[in-house]
User: What shape does this take?
Amino acid sequence: MKISTLVTRDLGESLLSGGCGECQTSCQSACKTSCGVANQPCEQKDSK
Amino acid sequence: MIHTFTQNGYTLVLDVYSGAVHVVDEEAAELIRLYEHHGKDATLAEYLRAHPDADMAQMHAGLEQIEALKHLGKLYTKDSAVKEALTADKKPAQLKALCLNVAHSCNLTCSYCFASQGKYKGEQALMSYETGKQALDYLITHSGKRRNLEVDFFGGEPLLNWQTVKRLVAYGRSVEEQAGKRFRFTLTTNGMLLDDEVMAFCNKEMNNVVLSLDGRQEVHDRFRVDHLGRGSYERIVPRFQAFAASRSHRNYYIRGTYTRHNLDFLQDILHMADLGFTQLSMEPMVGDPQDPASLREEDLPILYEQYEQLAVRMLERYRQGQGFDFYHYLINLEAGPCLYKRLSGCGSGTEYLAVTPTGDLYPCHQFVGDPQHLLGTVWEGIRHPERQEAFRACTLSSRAECEDCWAKLYCAGGCAANAYHATGSIQGVYAFGCKLFKKRLESALMLQAALAQDRQQA
Assistant: This one.
């Protein structure tokens, strides 16, 4: 039986450092016709 | 909430509210699904009923691992963080990005264009320097403490108003430091007027450039023609190749649109890659359902297959040292956006506004020209605050259809413009787009899982 867990940012913990709003507006980068919010990197260097 | 799926030989479990991703085998996937609703003992009993010859030691070990992951907050995570984020005492979102429509005019006449060949159902027009300058001042004034401000030079075709673009960049640079801001300029162009001078300027000043190319020549030239009906492929591709090379193949996107005429759009993406481009984006056409080029429900099986195979082909090319990026598969698992961002979405109407050549403000570029969505002007500010409030209220939590969706923290409820055009309400859901989005997300996660395993084995 195999369960291998990838390294991911914990979304619950992201509340502690998140919400600064400095990240890119999702529609500005490449799509212009859909909404994907998971592509934008967090602007905070030590984000959790 | 969890979501389990198998694609291209990879079985994955997404723990929706923590964002954890697990690569599992079929046995583990079944145990994880059972455990969600049954707990340990009933899960074991259920599993053994279906698999009487199962290895008991393995089952117990698997269940222990599942319980450990649950304890660590990486499985069956509740939505408490989402509720906390929604009730947090956060200041209202402030403006941070403008789509500057510097030209409501175009030197191509693509019939699928959502902007009606650049004119947005109105008159041809170019933005004056004064209007653009006022827009930048408006952005600075209304951006509060936000340091990074984004301005996309858009159209129509922005290179039809190139001197104004350059003057506006110079103005932005001249005031940003004193204002405590940093402008990130981008340009979206069809490439027809791209020359060495434009490239050199963009390489100095534009954080990103979006270059429109639909793929294979026959696909591209079907829609992307000039006013004489001549295809543009041969004129733009060499320029785009030179442009990408001059930017060291970074900070650009080759962006295409696919329609019902090229349901095999994977071939177009691979064609872009074969031309030497490495930063690729391909979007489904969003248009009038009566348009023969519009995608239909019956097209979904082939579209799903295209997205699945795209992930396979990308993996092959990565492993051959010829990898390329596809915008929708660039899911940033380790350092992606926080939960607040995932709940608030694209920010149209509040964080993000579109500006017409005459200075009118709209919630985003897709609403430009619709008088019902006119918000105000860069000179007078917001004249219809109730319209802006409607967009402010348009978040993930405002859409009942999204409540039980496993993908909701990756799309934040989707595009308000697509919802409006599909349902008549910005609070609606563009169901067809949701289906494509979920398939893209599964494909992205599969690709990320495969690449992570490659790195581990290296």
Q: What stands out?
A: The radius of gyration of chain A is 14 Å. Strands of chain A lie at 3-5. Chain A has a mean pLDDT of 80. Chain A is about 15% helix and 5% strand.
